[in-house]
Write a structure and sequence with these properties.
Blueprint: H1 14-27, H2 40-47, H3 51-63, E1 67-70, E2 74-77, H4 85-102, H5 107-123, E3 128-132, H6 137-151, E4 155-159, H7 163-169, E5 175-178, H8 183-189, E6 197-199, H9 206-214, E7 220-224, H10 228-242, E8 247-251, H11 256-265, E9 268-271, H12 275-285, E10 294-297, H13 304-314
Helix pairs in contact: 1-3, 1-10, 2-3, 11-12
Length: 320
Amino acid sequence: MVKFYIQPNSSVPVATQLFNQISFAITSGQYPPGKQLPSTRQLALWTGVHRNTISKVYQQLKEAGLVDAQPGAGVFVKQQGEDNRAGELRSLVRRTIDRLVQAGYSLEQIQQEMRAELNWRLQCAATVWVACHAHDPGVGKIMATEIRQALSVPVQVVTIQSLPHLLEETNNATTIVTNPYLYSATKAAVEGFDIPVIALPINRYEKEIAKLQKLPPGTYVGIVSASSGILRVAETIVRSIRGEDLTIVVCMPEQEEELYNIARFAHVIFVGDSPDLVQHTIEKAKPHRHRPLEVIYCDRYIALESLQQLQRELGLVNAT
């Protein structure tokens, strides 16, 4: 059973604590598609949070496209990866053929041209676009790096806001991927285009969370990531679990002064990405440190099963 930790005296509002924890549980696969969330009564008993607050959080999750509310039944995790891919494919193919037939082409002509087009595209490398918000390009860069390393395919980071224009301009076959947080916004941006959008569930970070739970009170914890969104969620979850008994400082790798201070004073640093830059800063601060330092390099942001799913979607049988 997923556990939620609410710190009533935390500087982070209770609703924010609960929203970030539930959304993380969904996007990391701990609550899979179709799973029913606890009723407001159950969650109130577990956490001590008022049912009205829980109802508002569930509404926020619905607006974010993470859950569906079924009257009389409850709140269920929404399918982010488009469960009926085969049915969708058949529907797209049929609509395309219908339009071509209506335009006066024979089935033989359509078959010939489709076969030629498919053969050409199969000879080309798969192209993947990673969609992210313009205000947080870091999460797109992290996802793109992990996809390139795992699948060896061309990957381009694009903003959700630019997708309609880019799709109007391109003639290349493209698959768009994003994380479950941004799936609904990405789907809305490509409405009207026959473009697949795949939501890739993120890592559960079980080892990192277990480590945080065991740290003694007063520990200075630094968290480093290229994504402002990841840092925001990470800090909220840590404070939800530990309250104010840890000193939590987060920064992005390009924030040189903040990163140096973390490298100099922290007891533990969790590094989500940019390990070389972090290690360089740690070495630079080493002569001025007066306490032991533990550096934890976090597992990949995209869950391994998600990369395997993408591999299958792209037809990359021999990808590693």
